[in-house]
Write a structure and sequence with these properties.
Aspartate Aminotransferase, domain 2, Aspartate Aminotransferase, domain 1, alpha/beta, 7-stranded mixed sheet, binds pyridoxal-5'-phosphate
């Protein structure tokens, strides 16, 4: 932090001069990454518990992904959706073979995958239930589904969708894990219910197993589609290839992004053949979705992440992370609870630490470890799925130092 502040013209100053002020980036500027370590402009190293916000599923510059990118970069970068391409077909085959889905639509981000899912659900209802009044979408409070206007209006944090004029209509919100609230909302007018199996941005809050089973059966009862937003929980993050597998509850549509590209932008919407059939040539589209570079990297990522040993390793890492957090907590008593699954954990701050997540995050960077927050009261960890034990140990030692500093 100090180093960056005395640099001639700091990157943060340049950022403020040049960029639309949507973000307020930390003064530390990472310039290089390898595995679960990052280095900044002055050569300081950081243990990375952020993983690019659950995107760098195999850490930075994983040799296998690097090779896939370089190989594809020397063959074909882009060919438009007037033509299909081999990497997209290979990746689609993997996703279909590995999941409930029969059909895949590629996009470039989580928001775009969700945008496609919500539009598909509306169109499917129109195709199959006529009349045009089966349009209601039910989502959860505190949910996060992206920043396009449809997805941000579907997300359960109205402050993100306010101030842009009339919102897309017929979207209602219910509290997560409250089946009675959903039962009261859902009806023959409902075309889809969208749920994150574990709310990521909203606080690392897992849906309960009973809740998701109940949601599935209410959807069936009212002929509404169930959409799982696995943008954050997918691709091995929870120790299952997709979180729905751990719950044993199968959606009609699943969206994913973040970890799928291992740091390269890509999103995907997965659906059954019956549901997918409501999109026809011209109904929906994208210029970059299915880009060969992105698909080649994602394909290599899935080859790795779908291995049972890798998924078992994610569950071992969860244990290790929880042990460290428990040990730190027994010294400082700052967590009320640690929740989440696999390499997506949220440490909920205890009463007397309320609202101090950002301060913790700053202190952590100062000690050489990067952690995330999920709201003002939750410290979020989303490290690479293959983070070495040494990096976990070292990162936790640094985090403990940061906490000790704040605890005074
Ligand atoms: C990050 C996220 C999104 C949005 O993804 P973008 O790639 O930022 O558009 C949507 N849903 C969930 C659950 C997410 O975590």
């Amino acid at each position: 932090m100090l180093e960056a502040a005395v640099a001639p013209v700091s990157c943060r100053a340049q950022f403020d001069q040049l960029m639309v002020p949507c973000f307020a980036p930390h003064p530390v500027v990472p310039v290089r990454g390898s595995g679960s370590r990052l280095w900044d402009e002055v050569g300081r190293d950081y243990v990375d518990f952020i993983g690019g916000i659950a995107t760098n599923a195999l850490g930075h510059c994983h040799p296998r992904l690097q090779q896939a990118l370089i190989t594809q970069a020397s063959q074909l970068w882009h060919s438009s959706n007037y033509f299909t391409n081999q990497p997209a077909l290979r990746l689609a085959r993997q996703l279909v073979d590995l999941t409930f889905a029969d059909r895949v639509f590629f996009a470039n981000s989580g928001a775009e995958a969700n945008e496609a899912a919500l539009k598909l659900a509306r169109r499917y209802a129109q195709d199959h239930h006529g009349g045009g009044d089966k349009v209601q979408i039910i989502a959860c409070l505190q949910a996060f589904h992206g920043r396009t206007f449809f997805t941000v209006s579907t997300g359960g944090q109205p402050q993100y969708a306010d101030g842009f004029g009339p919102k897309p209509a017929a979207i209602d919100h219910v509290p997560l894990n409250d089946l009675e609230a959903l039962r009261a909302q859902i009806s023959s007018r409902t075309c889809a219910v969208i749920v994150e199996p574990i709310q990521g941005e909203g606080g690392v809050t897992p849906a309960s197993h009973d809740y998701l089973e109940g949601v599935r059966s209410l959807c069936d009862q009212h002929q509404a589609l169930l959409i799982f937003d696995e943008v954050q929980t997918g691709n091995g993050r929870t120790g299952d290839l997709f979180a729905y597998m751990g719950y044993g509850v199968v959606p009609d549509i699943l969206t994913t992004a973040k970890g799928l590209g291992g740091g390269f932008p890509i999103g995907a919407m997965l659906a059954s053949a019956q549901v997918a059939a409501s999109f026809k040539p011209g109904t929906h589209g994208t210029t970059f979705g299915g880009n060969p570079l992105a698909c080649a990297v994602a394909s290599a990522l899935l080859d790795e992440v779908s291995q049972p040993e890798l998924l078992a390793g994610v569950r071992r890492r969860e244990q290790l992370l929880r042990e460290h957090l428990g040990r730190i907590n027994s010294r400082f008593g700052l967590f009320a609870e640690v929740r989440g699954k696999g390499c997506l954990l949220g440490a909920v701050l205890a009463d007397r630490w309320q609202g101090r997540a950002r301060e913790l995050l700053e202190a952590a960077v100062g000690e050489g470890v990067m952690v995330l927050m999920a709201g003002p009261n939750v410290l979020r960890l989303a490290p690479a799925l293959n983070i070495p034990q040494d990096d976990i140990d070292d990162g936790m030692t640094r985090l403990e130092r940061a906490i000790a500093r704040l605890a005074g």
